[in-house]
């Protein structure tokens, strides 16, 4: 069944402030055709409460964030129930594809929505929250933010605080 779901289209353009990068779309996102479409995912609330968006957006409006300078992609395009369903080969291919996308579009910041997304991409064993000391793609700043999944056990205020760091940086 998972293989029958459509990939969720990237929303990428030149001159973006931030590209948000997830593991891969959820089943719900695959069905809806929009990023972060699972109602239990806090992504849209986090963006609004951190000051990254002027209002609360809905997943169906994901393409509209291009006007704000924000884009979306994933390390793996195939929708799955969870990141544990992604194969090693998909990660290997996804890393190369993602690097090429970042090299081509050159957003100011690559925001990895989850430490696991960043460690899979970078090949580094661990990462701290926030801005990384070294970037993988020259000229693109790497930022690691908590996953917005409803399964994350961090306090929402703490998650929003990390995203607020990003909001303050892009409004400077």
From TrEMBL:
- Provide the Uracil-DNA glycosylase-like domain boundaries: 13-156
Pfam families documented for this protein: UDG
Q: Does the keyword DNA damage apply?
A: yes
Q: Which SUPFAM superfamilies match?
A: Uracil-DNA glycosylase-like
- Keywords associated with the record: DNA damage, DNA repair, Hydrolase
Q: Does the keyword Protein transport apply?
A: no
Q: Which InterPro entries match?
A: MUG/TDG, Uracil-DNA_glycosylase-like, Uracil-DNA_glycosylase-like_sf
Known PANTHER family for this protein? G/T AND G/U MISMATCH-SPECIFIC DNA GLYCOSYLASE, G_T MISMATCH-SPECIFIC THYMINE DNA GLYCOSYLASE
Q: What is this protein called?
A: Uracil-DNA glycosylase-like domain-containing protein
According to its UniProt entry, this protein's organism is Paenibacillus vini
């Amino acid at each position: 069944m998972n293989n029958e779901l459509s990939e969720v289209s990237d929303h990428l353009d030149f001159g973006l402030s931030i590209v948000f990068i997830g593991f891969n779309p959820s089943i719900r996102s695959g069905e809806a055709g929009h990023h972060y479409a699972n109602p239990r995912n806090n992504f849209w609330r986090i963006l609004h409460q951190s000051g990254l968006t002027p209002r609360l957006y809905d997943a169906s409006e994901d393409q509209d964030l291009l006007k704000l300078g924000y884009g979306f992609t994933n390390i793996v395009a195939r929708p799955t129930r969870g990141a544990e369903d992604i194969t090693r080969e998909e990660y290997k291919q996804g890393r190369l594809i993602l690097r090429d996308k970042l090299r081509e579009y050159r957003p100011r910041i690559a925001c990895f929505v989850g430490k696991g997304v960043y460690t899979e991409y970078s090949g580094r064993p661990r990462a701290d929250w926030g801005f990384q000391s070294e970037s993988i793609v020259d000229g693109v700043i790497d930022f690691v933010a908590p996953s917005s999944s409803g399964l994350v056990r961090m306090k929402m205020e703490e998650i929003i605080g990390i995203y607020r760091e990003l909001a303050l940086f892009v409004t400077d």
